[in-house]
Amino acid sequence: MISNGESLEGACGHLVLAVAAAIAFDSSAWAQGHVSDIGLRVSTTGQITTHLITTGGISPEQRVFAATFGDTGISGFTANPGFDAIAATFAVGYRIGFNIRSALSVWNGGQFEATDPAGPLVGERLKLSFLTANVTSGAGSVPGFSLAVQSDGGWHRHLSFYLLAGTGTPAPDSGVYLLELELWSTDPAVQQSAPFWLVMNHVSSAEQQAAATAWVIDNLLPSPCPADIQGDGVVDGTDLAFVLGAWGGSGAADVNGSGVVDGSDLTIVLGAWGACQ
Known about the structure:
This protein is an alpha+beta fold.
């Protein structure tokens, strides 16, 4: 709440400093994380949350990630991004697993379409494996498998992703593919994650992957309230930082859709502060 003796500018300055301090403190713990992996945390409500590990630490919650088949020199294969939870994130003795939430789909230039036999690419599938454990995507949701939490409470795993050709075809077609996943724990105190997506490039252009990623963000990420820019159900300092960081520009921080991020967007964010109703 802004006190009677404090200006809006002063309040915003204090909030930004608090956000920056929190991010700096949090990032120090992730200094040894693998850049571009999906960082895992457990929220204050007990839910697994997904983040991007960067050179500066860990991002706010994020649910759309990029992948590139062939990045290790093997066509149609990648082991990136991996999953990385720092020590003491999870209780030792439990397991973290995943589910494939929907059929593999492919970008057609305007939206994603399922790669089923009636679809554009005649049945490409995605196989996920770790040592002897493996599962292949299907026409809908498919249960995955789980792997043990490490002895220090961390969970750093790189699954192998194999893009499989459709029936009767020698190789998968080039394109940008979309995989929808969720993570879960055998620990009853830990809730499964919200859905998240891998936008996976197979011999397609960076421009097509970027367009496909933007479509996922605009069309698949829920927005319980316009001021909740990062989509975590709470309007807080992170959303404020997005507005201030994009000031004068456009994009997701343009809360009112006016075409520019300005004082009107700032007012909406401050007025909606707290949990989305």
